[in-house]
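Recall from the previous lesson that a structure prediction takes nothing but the amino acid sequence as input. Here we apply that procedure to HEAT repeat domain-containing protein from Pseudomonas arsenicoxydans. The sequence below is the only information supplied.
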Amino acid sequence: MTFLFDVTDNDDILALQPRLTDDDPGVRRIALIELADLEEPDGLLWLVNRLAEDPTEEIRAEAARLLEAWEEEAVVEALCQALTDPSLAVQAAAAQSLSLLKSEAAGRVILPWTGHAEASVRIAAFRALRELRFPDAASAASAALNDADASVRREAVGVLGWLKQLDALTALARLASTDPDTEVRRAATGALGLASDAQVLPALRQALRDGAWQVREEAATTLGKVGHMDAGPALVEALSDDYWQVRLRATRSLGRLRFAPALEALIETLGHRISNLRKEAALALGELNDKGAIAPLQAAQDDGDPEVRKAVRIALSQLQ
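The prediction returns the following tokens.
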């Protein structure tokens, strides 16, 4: 891909141009950086040209990084093209720069790349669109939930979650329950938190019994966000999970729900050997607003961990 350069009368840019094609890669790299520092539109296509045509992958990667602040269509298209560069370093730099774009116009350029044959390109395109929160990406993301590549499915879930696509809840619930990839199930479970609708509870309860603790942890968190008291019993059961990370999130969600029947289980957690769990249990007991928690909290005022003692003080101030 060859770019024609704008004619310029900018002396600083004219002085840099010979160095941009110097035989020494180090000279070319410094010239690129100096050109980017000028922040002159007249020099933009020189940066784009080095991204596309420089023979040294380090220079192409540098050009991709330097183009992160530019929203012009030619730049966005060049960065998308760079996703197919033979160098993984160039691909990564281009993907990073695309993820930092902010304009809707950039989204329109990136969107067609979600259908590229290479999974790595589709992944980068969806990641950039997620950050843009580009509404027109919803259709492509929904279709990509069936992509053969798990990482593409995960990025598509992220797009739908950021866009709060309620009409995707059924498909997200399916992924949370049945996708063979742990990270896809985890992402889909988290995305279900975009709704406060009770329809997501069955899928979240199932996710709370997933074979992967990371999915169970996400489910425990999301159930607190959804905010339905019907989630309480499943969260109380999760306080006995083999992984403390799941217990911690379940504890936090029970406090968030103010689920009164969890009182005894949270009091028991207040004596757990892991201090982070004791801290979350104290905070949750304060949120329950049940006087039955006062005596156990008072007994925990001399806990060996200062963070737990602080949480106990906060909880007692809520109850007294």
